[in-house]
User: What shape does this take?
Amino acid sequence: MAEILIRAYNSWMEAVPQATKDKWSVAMWAKYNRRRRKGNPIVIKSNGWKWGKKECLPRYVILRVDMSMEEAKKYVEKGYEDKDETQITKYNRKYSFDVNELNVAVLTETPILTKSKFEFEEKIIDLTEPRIIL
Assistant: This one.
């Protein structure tokens, strides 16, 4: 079983007014798009890992998933190449966990979520894939 630390809060950049964002340079937009987002997997550890005092609610949720460490490693992949920092359409992480599940965990003060591999894969989003938002 793998434990994944998931970010449960938004970047400070989310609060920047749109009028300010409209004045940003291409480099600043690139930084904005590479920011860590709520739902981003941060790090993967083996089951039973002793997490630090700050690796908990309300900033992080621990997700226990019934999969091997090797299988879980792909979920902390970067979503961009270091060489191309000015490309606007890149992400800090390639994957994101369902934000609605995180919001419920934070509101109900549930620090650890346990999911089967199937449940986890149903709730993970590949940010580099085109998707339809309804």
Residues 2-126 form one domain. The chain has one domain: 2-126. The first strand starts at residue 2 and ends at 7.
